[in-house]
Amino acid sequence: MTRHDALTAILNDLQAELEKQGLWSTQPPAPSAFESQTPFFADTMNFSEWLQWVFVARFRAMMDAGAPLPGSCDVAPMAEEALKEMQQDVSEIINLLKAFDDHF
User: Fold this and answer.
1) Topology (CATH) of 3-23+44-102
2) Which of 17, 28, 48, 95 is the most exposed place for a label (fewest CB within 10 A)?
């Protein structure tokens, strides 16, 4: 399995887990939410929105275009912090993000 295939599989699993948890939306945030200059768009989106509309979308777009991937990815620690107040068990989301990070 290539790195691209592995990352795509993790993104697919992440999307499935977000859907299972009720954290995947069919409606994007307002266009102005994407203009944020704050890391993780924390001032305009909650973390699960950022995962869906920024993280997953951008990585899929980069891989589809054959664009170079970043030299590192360290999103799992932010996920642990941002999702710690969630009522449901988000451990699988964090595990998938750790696996994604490990490919960099």
Assistant:
1) de novo design (two linked rop proteins) (1.20.1440)
2) 28
